[in-house]
Amino acid sequence: MPFIPHTDEDITGMLDVIGVDSIDALFDEIPKELRAKELAGVPSGLSEMEVTQLLQARARIDGEPTCFIGAGAYDHHIPAAVWQITTRGEFYSAYTPYQAEASQGTLQVLYEFQSMMTALTGLDVSNASLYDGASALAEAVLMAVRANRKVKTTRVLMPRSVHPFYRRTVRSIVQHQGIDLVEVDFDTETGQTTLAHCETAGDEPFAALVVPQPNVFGVLEDVNALTDWAQSRDALVIGVVNPVALALLSPPGDWGQNGADIACGEGQPLGMPLASGGPYLGFLCCQQAFIRQLPGRIAGKTEDVDGKVGYTLTLQAREQHIRRSKATSNICTNQGLLVTAATVHMAILGAEGLERVAAACLANTDRLAQQLCEVPGVEPIFEAPAFHERALRLPAPTEDVLAALAEQDILGGFDLGREYPELGCALLVCATERRTDAEIAAYREALASTLAIAEAA
Amino acid sequence: MPFIPHTDEDITGMLDVIGVDSIDALFDEIPKELRAKELAGVPSGLSEMEVTQLLQARARIDGEPTCFIGAGAYDHHIPAAVWQITTRGEFYSAYTPYQAEASQGTLQVLYEFQSMMTALTGLDVSNASLYDGASALAEAVLMAVRANRKVKTTRVLMPRSVHPFYRRTVRSIVQHQGIDLVEVDFDTETGQTTLAHCETAGDEPFAALVVPQPNVFGVLEDVNALTDWAQSRDALVIGVVNPVALALLSPPGDWGQNGADIACGEGQPLGMPLASGGPYLGFLCCQQAFIRQLPGRIAGKTEDVDGKVGYTLTLQAREQHIRRSKATSNICTNQGLLVTAATVHMAILGAEGLERVAAACLANTDRLAQQLCEVPGVEPIFEAPAFHERALRLPAPTEDVLAALAEQDILGGFDLGREYPELGCALLVCATERRTDAEIAAYREALASTLAIAEAA
Amino acid sequence: MLIHEQSRPGRRATAQAPLETADHGDLPQALRRKQRAALPEVSELQAVRHYTRLSQQNFSIDTHFYPLGSCTMKYNPRACNSLASLPGFLARHPAAPESHSQGIMACLHELQDMLKSVTGMHAVSLAPAAGAQGELAGVMMIRAYHDARGDHERREMLVPDAAHGTNPASAIMAGFKVREVPTGSNGDVDIAALRDAVGPQTAGIMLTNPSTVGVFDRSIQAIAKSVHEAGGLLYYDGANLNAILGKVRPGDMGFDVIHMNLHKTFSTPHGGGGPGAGPVGVSKRLEPYLPIPLVTQGDDERYHWLDEDDRPESIGRMTAFGGNMGILLRAYIYARMLGAEGMRRVSEFATLNANYLQARLRDAGFQLAYPERRASHEFIITLKKEAKAFDVNTMDFAKRLLDYGYHAPTTYFPLLVPECLLIEPTETEPKEALDGFVESMNKIRAEAENDPETVKQAPHSLPLRRLDDVRAARQLDVAWKPAEGTA
Amino acid sequence: MLIHEQSRPGRRATAQAPLETADHGDLPQALRRKQRAALPEVSELQAVRHYTRLSQQNFSIDTHFYPLGSCTMKYNPRACNSLASLPGFLARHPAAPESHSQGIMACLHELQDMLKSVTGMHAVSLAPAAGAQGELAGVMMIRAYHDARGDHERREMLVPDAAHGTNPASAIMAGFKVREVPTGSNGDVDIAALRDAVGPQTAGIMLTNPSTVGVFDRSIQAIAKSVHEAGGLLYYDGANLNAILGKVRPGDMGFDVIHMNLHKTFSTPHGGGGPGAGPVGVSKRLEPYLPIPLVTQGDDERYHWLDEDDRPESIGRMTAFGGNMGILLRAYIYARMLGAEGMRRVSEFATLNANYLQARLRDAGFQLAYPERRASHEFIITLKKEAKAFDVNTMDFAKRLLDYGYHAPTTYFPLLVPECLLIEPTETEPKEALDGFVESMNKIRAEAENDPETVKQAPHSLPLRRLDDVRAARQLDVAWKPAEGTA
Ligand SMILES: Cc1ncc(COP(=O)(O)O)c(C=O)c1O
Ligand SMILES: Cc1ncc(COP(=O)(O)O)c(C=O)c1O
């Protein structure tokens, strides 16, 4: 019996002790009429060998396209050590560290992760993960509304330059809690959210302003001005940041006069494979003052009875298993294993290594954009400085171009036009440090010939 | 500096303590004129990302052919757990367990491995591995000559039905120790080594007879008769066995009246990937009486000062690091990590699991042989019962047929004719439990069309 | 020692970052970082050694019996990890076109189908990232359903007092008020109280069956009837699905929505606290509201995503990219290895192990919370007798179990049973592990009687002795900071 | 507990074998097994848990400083393992045709070239499976060379008394007589004694330089001259190549043959005792004798194997399938990451670490075996003073070091230095590890003085106390056997 160790002798002996004569008898409290029949939709079991053959075929079927898509998930190099350590059974198959003494490995990793995230974001405290960047933003919005003691409002300003999937996720999650998400437009020349756009939200107070850095277009927002503007109106500032970009960019804690109040984002670039979208890792940091509003688990340092340093979950009174309906969030299972991966990843790269990665992505994307813009009809959409993504305008429908490129095993980017019709045939491209000159050149060639055919047609 | 942790400050501080002012000064005892120049043949270093890209390309370049080659290395399913455990740092990066108290993990694994190998072979003792099956046979031959107290001779009978690569390896290794390897022919009808063939070696005494089971053709030898014959002439019997086959076949310890004296072979089928030929694992087992002649490491059970059971290397006085030029062998580094893999593999499969694997291979190869023999002109060469390989005769040169199949990404088998010209266009095929019906059918089709073309030409 | 404390300025794992220094000269000064983040600077060996040694300080399924009630800590087959980590799966970008996503989509589509079959629901979405998010999605769908019918007054969600904390917390996030329903002394929901509680304000009830007290609620049909007649819907918290897999289906019990914890029942890694996956299944009337994305198969046999555009009534997107795909893949692999017969065996042997352990502990003199009842895949004992007699509490027992090499069961949950241990052995543990656990419990009780300090001071054999939780909360230190003036 | 002791008849890890029962009815009864082998019958979880826990009982580079002299226990980059384990590499059959082997052959060919460059030799074969097999191949080539010249009297191999045991053992296997050459008190070979020893019977000398006493033999040129003039050849034991990588090349020192231990210098895993790889390099005159197979590149840029047919004078095949390919691949990957500059750094920092540790131990009052000399990548201290004063020997120090979390250095080797520790820190250890080691050595000496029993009884903090080696050899128990009457 796969994964079940019982021998016939075991079964008989155990039933004897229980005092029944069949396993089926153990289910006798379930009303007869409810008992399940065959599970028609479930095929019979396969051996590991058979399932291996099946999955190998599935993993192969889609080829090995070259990826120039970013848009929230980035194809970075991950040191081999990261997952060899992360999948060690002691990390992989442990649970939430409820018995601290038996889980110091996990707990210290959480504490180190929190330390690294606060270092990257320049804020005081970090939780030990949320599901992903988008749901972390939703939690940040809820948290900001709870935490803002100066203005009692549920209005939150949400720039349209925030990734559309994030905005949708936030909307799904917060929609029933009375939060009023006010959209703020961006400047179509620069791709930035300007103060002027913010002002259009009107004079009514708002609890928080969300500030993406870089924004979905890769464009750098004027985070200092935005932060000061919002805070001068008694609103909190929530930064949505890319942790690799933070190796080069000013951390939320340094934004404006007083720093952002909250920062969140997607931890995927810190050692997680693309893997179709998950599991990734949402992070959430804030200033010390708001720690009791922070959702999710937090590991803290303490001592044992002999005074030896150890770590334990702390401030659990915020959490659902203690506070139940009054908790800061419903989250229970989080993304612990990914926290482990991110922690090992950051430890191995260090700040200088992350900086090199960020700089290489920047340079590669510059090169990519430059080369693609040499193709007639292709041009950059925005002028402002950008991190490692670029919005380009195409002379043909993005969808068709992407499909033609895909046939050549090039995943050409993210169709921006679908989300921002006002930008026309718009494409968002990205070249991480893993993309080679040859791959960039091949993309350029493929784009040129695709567009030539499109024009001819 | 890749893999070197020294900071500039470390270096200065350390040089200070040593009392020199440069690292170069530490090499001042090396005559100047000997100092190396540039290493012209070594390119500059690559980052892990670059080397990953390079190796991924190399790993991909040869496609994913379907393998019907056996001939000493077999494409078995390996449970995922095997290598996830084996590559745990504590096993992977440890050394020979010279400090037993700090190496109980490795030592207990060795002891368990020895226990499993004695169970499989039916002999009393096992060492803790040699390099591979072929070099293990060389050591077995040397050992038998040392161990045989009844006849003082260096003649050893070596059937030609032993894998030709094994015979060559034995010859390389023992050639300078005065061993006289006497070849014994096989019956071209049955593929077996008969007593009549053995008798042709003449009346002179011999120290040992090597008995392959199955032999290189997959054919089962009459091991009982051979064992009794050799032992009646005061010779020792060395079985060369496939450990997976032993799940079904009579173990060397049961051969004939008294059992074989020594058994050796290739451990690759016990959890090692094909991996171009290594690292694999040679095993060597023997009757208790010969343990002091056994080469290689041996782990033994003992106790600590509190009477707790533990394990340690034992009988080291046989080994080169103690006995130096009088050692039983020069072996030092062995195949420890592969021992770990084999031990986990056997623990997971158990005897019943191995039996299923063996039976499935047998059935699959039967099916393959049957189907291939439906192709006009293809026929089995031998009549005797066989394990999971079959020798087939082709109506066209084996080399050409294999090349044509390879173009269709089918690795059709091992060219037997090259080694045994008397067999004509001979091909040795194998289908392990991993080969599917579809793959077997595809092989049959490909062979049929290849031969049809060959005939037409 | 923290990794930060092993850091030295200028130390590097150089092979791991691009060797060439790329230019980033045109980033505006005002937007640049002024000072490098205080991340550790260590060599690759240091990092490997540090985290390898840290890992050894964990209890885990791969090293210990871990009978943590409600958490289903069973063996995570290693094949699931290695196959989900095949390069073709890891390399796929979430926004890759369908033309380059057929492999994973086939797996997801089949998983949707298997989960439907196993739960008896009409349709399944794999989107929620864990159980709690599945709950949120589930109750949001209940709300969407009532709202779509103009039934805007239904704003109250019934939740048994034994329920997991996520249940009330999720209901609140979906904008409901929570009303507690008491548990009867036999472990079943107090049906009379329930009947009093339902009404036109009732949006639904969140239940798990078998419940968190470890028994199968025999009046489930009556509950369903009562809630449905009042116009409410039934939500099934699938955390305990392991107990009934293939035996009885939530859909057949009358539930309208269910979430599943794949990291429990389908044995994906718990990972020290996650990730999970919390797919939701629904009856036909709730199908339009399922969270997106969904996978569908066209007439051309190709797979397609259904997203916002295709599903206008959907409650929407729960995460940016559709959920914890790698976990879904692991669950799929596990499900394929089990097959229908294997799934049924899961619940059978989980239940056998729980009832055996319950019987042995009862025979050893421990007090069961519900002595008259069958255990489901878990059961509760209460140590209030021992606590009173020896002044040794449940937490002391729990800590002392660690010394004996067993992870403690869940302590003090559910809240309604005093000094309780919720014990879930799971089906993958051999009888010997259960017997060893009983033996240790007996020893600890004897110690509690004869040498209570040993128990109260436990653990003794771990790298650390008992940790001070109060200090952790009072003298908050949740992140290492570089000493002033450095970094 | 042994895995065998967890076995229960009929227990299975069922997912791991073919589920369908295949027929094997036509195997002759006389050749069939009568009784199943007594392999353990356990579940997959039991196996995983057992071996995971066993692994935790090992010291290893990934967990501990491991300054085992002569063994070069340095960091094994994890990328080497994962890249050598890419499916394309693992799936290749050793007898696959060249048409389907170009990927690995390219790596092997480049590795041959890099090893040539690094050793200064004319040609390289990757065939030998480990150092000792490389030695055997090396001395066999020396023999083949003399034999080919009809120089059949050269049957004596000179071996310094400090040499590793494999050297004399290998020489014997190649049919040589071994003659020991003494080491001078300064650590260099006693050149006068050497001159006396060489003659028409001399086939060659097996040396390592720096030698196993941890110093670079300054008279290497004189040695080479003397042996060569006598008609002998020089064999280089490459176990210590880490000390001189990129700094000085055996070929330039005058050696005719060399083996390399890739598991040392090129950082492939030691694996608890193996596998290794022991490529051999030779000067031009020995090239024809190299063991096969070799990889060559044709004019068409494709790679080809050279085997028996192509190389009629070869000493032949060392293993069935051409060596430990997966290890060669790991070494190749490591070499590519290091590059020429990285290789030079290896020897520089290995030497820096050794000299620093030597200086610190000397300053702490430990006695160096060769106080006047530079350390190479390793060095020797002798504890004979301490042994005499406190009746605590080197083995006691070694065992006590385990308590302090350090693997012991090599003890009692080389044989010529009494009560010695051969200490090799390697380049991948940070200064802190070396400082910690010194501190522990100081503490242990203080203990030896004040509380010798603690040292003599060590270790105290490991799962087991000191093991009885004598008992192991006297009451031999080298395999578990089922109790009589059972399977
Ligand atoms: C009964 C019950 N419900 C819900 C949950 C929440 O699931 P998750 O942790 O996956 O969010 C849990 C998990 O602990 C649980 O035990
Ligand atoms: C000096 C020396 N020579 C030779 C060898 C033998 O090498 P291997 O263990 O790879 O066979 C060793 C290994 O320990 C050694 O240290």
From TrEMBL, chains A, B:
Keywords for the protein's UniProt record, in alphabetical order: Oxidoreductase
Taxonomic superkingdom: Bacteria
GO-annotated molecular function: glycine dehydrogenase (decarboxylating) activity
EC numbers on record: 1.4.4.2
GO biological process, any: glycine decarboxylation via glycine cleavage system
Span of domain Glycine cleavage system P-protein N-terminal: 3-442
Reaction(s) catalysed (UniProt annotation): N(6)-[(R)-lipoyl]-L-lysyl-[glycine-cleavage complex H protein] + glycine + H(+) = N(6)-[(R)-S(8)-aminomethyldihydrolipoyl]-L-lysyl-[glycine-cleavage complex H protein] + CO2
InterPro entries membership: GcvPA, GDC-P_N, GDC_P, PyrdxlP-dep_Trfase, PyrdxlP-dep_Trfase_major, PyrdxlP-dep_Trfase_small
Group of enzyme by EC: oxidoreductase
Function: The glycine cleavage system catalyzes the degradation of glycine. The P protein binds the alpha-amino group of glycine through its pyridoxal phosphate cofactor; CO(2) is released and the remaining methylamine moiety is then transferred to the lipoamide cofactor of the H protein.
Oligomeric form and interacting partners: The glycine cleavage system is composed of four proteins: P, T, L and H. In this organism, the P 'protein' is a heterodimer of two subunits.
Similarity section: Belongs to the GcvP family. N-terminal subunit subfamily.
UniProt protein name: Probable glycine dehydrogenase (decarboxylating) subunit 1
UniProt source species: Halochromatium salexigens (Chromatium salexigens)
UniProtKB/TrEMBL annotation, chains C, D:
GO CC annotations, alphabetized: cytosol; glycine cleavage complex
Family: Belongs to the GcvP family. C-terminal subunit subfamily.
One of the protein's GO biological processes: glycine decarboxylation via glycine cleavage system
Cofactor section: pyridoxal 5'-phosphate
Gene3D superfamilies: 6.20.440.10, Aspartate Aminotransferase, domain 1 (3.90.1150.10), Type I PLP-dependent aspartate aminotransferase-like (Major domain) (3.40.640.10)
Quaternary structure note: The glycine cleavage system is composed of four proteins: P, T, L and H. In this organism, the P 'protein' is a heterodimer of two subunits.
Reactions listed under catalytic activity: N(6)-[(R)-lipoyl]-L-lysyl-[glycine-cleavage complex H protein] + glycine + H(+) = N(6)-[(R)-S(8)-aminomethyldihydrolipoyl]-L-lysyl-[glycine-cleavage complex H protein] + CO2
Domain Aminotransferase class V: 153-271
Top-level division of the source organism's lineage: Bacteria
N6-(pyridoxal phosphate)lysine: modified positions: 264
UniProt region (Disordered), positions on chain: 1-27
Protein name in the entry: Probable glycine dehydrogenase (decarboxylating) subunit 2
Organism: Halochromatium salexigens
UniProt keyword annotation of Amino-acid biosynthesis present: no
EC number of the protein: 1.4.4.2
Key words, A-Z: Oxidoreductase, Pyridoxal phosphate
Function: The glycine cleavage system catalyzes the degradation of glycine. The P protein binds the alpha-amino group of glycine through its pyridoxal phosphate cofactor; CO(2) is released and the remaining methylamine moiety is then transferred to the lipoamide cofactor of the H protein.
Domain called Glycine dehydrogenase C-terminal: residue spans: 347-450
GO terms of molecular function: glycine binding; glycine dehydrogenase (decarboxylating) activity; pyridoxal phosphate binding
InterPro entries (alphabetical): Aminotrans_V_dom, GcvPB, GDC-P_C, GDC_P, PyrdxlP-dep_Trfase, PyrdxlP-dep_Trfase_major, PyrdxlP-dep_Trfase_small
PANTHER family xref list: GLYCINE DEHYDROGENASE (DECARBOXYLATING), MITOCHONDRIAL, GLYCINE DEHYDROGENASE, DECARBOXYLATING
S-adenosyl-L-methionine is among the record's keywords: no
Pfam family, one: Aminotran_5
